Amino acid sequence: MADTAETYGDAGCERRAVSRDTTHRFLVVTGDGQEVERLARLLVAGPGGEEPELARVADPVQARAAVDDQRFDAVFVDVDGLPPGTIHELEALVAREGFPPILAFTSCSDPEFAARLLELGIDDCLVKGEVDRADLTRSVVLGAARGRMRVRLYAESLTDELTGLYNRRGFLRIGAQFLDGAKRRGCGAWLLFADIRGLKRINDRFGHVAGDRALRAAADLLRGSFRSADVVARLGGDEFTVLAGDASESSRELLVARALGRLDGVRRAAGLDVGFGLAIGTARFRPAEPIPLQELLRIAGEEAAAAKQGARCEG
User: Fold this and answer.
1) Which CATH number is 168-308 given?
2) Is domain 7-157 in CATH 3.30.160.70, yes or no?
3) For the chain, how big is the Rg over CA atoms in Å?
4) Which of 61, 88, 185, 230 has its C-alpha lying 20 to 30 A from 297's C-alpha?
5) At 48, phi and psi to the nearest 5?
């Protein structure tokens, strides 16, 4: 069967189709087409098996674009053939959420060099000429397992353990992406900053178990008051925030009332009849005049602090 080659849009991704009927897809980062041929021979399945499909790009920047555009089971990087000064870009690839396992192959057998690659986050380092198909298959399987673990650890790093909401780090990361999308679509959004009233009194009078119950109740209230597409987070302590997208200028009071309207029911369900309430501040995101996320938090937080002492503090 004759080989075919295609170009994948902006990624500049040259594809070598090893078979018409493929299930596994690999990306090879190399400037040497012969390396693709060598990998293809190693990856080819036995009789009756399905053969893989390989795609080639020249550098890590093109690899990032290719993976954004398509699904790959693993990325092979020819370290020897990387353009000068680009090896550090491998670390940026590893840091990308959901990026497939990255397996480096090199002619250098120095274990210290392999260790430096692994410190960048590469899943395995293979020495050219010393790897057979069994070694390669094992590296792909173990790399996929490490990738799943990395995704799980990454998700945990963005999540508040007590409430299951995003933590501050997760909110700043996901919230920035949320606002970028709102800006591109030309859609407004509201940021709500919610501060629990009476948490210290609950802790002092009933203990930290009751305080944790109050925090979970506030999380349940906000989670249940907004859409799954909105971003809800616990910033820390008694502070929570929500990014509500596709929201009009006039929807501010409706959004606040939506949360406060559920307060009594949530309070009773959590057994927090005494001293549990919310003070809410807001800030408006307008795509024509975008305000950075940190500034929105400051504006809404100051309004919530003032409300905590005034009439808009419910509970």
Assistant:
1) 3.30.70.270
2) no
3) 26
4) 185
5) 80, -5
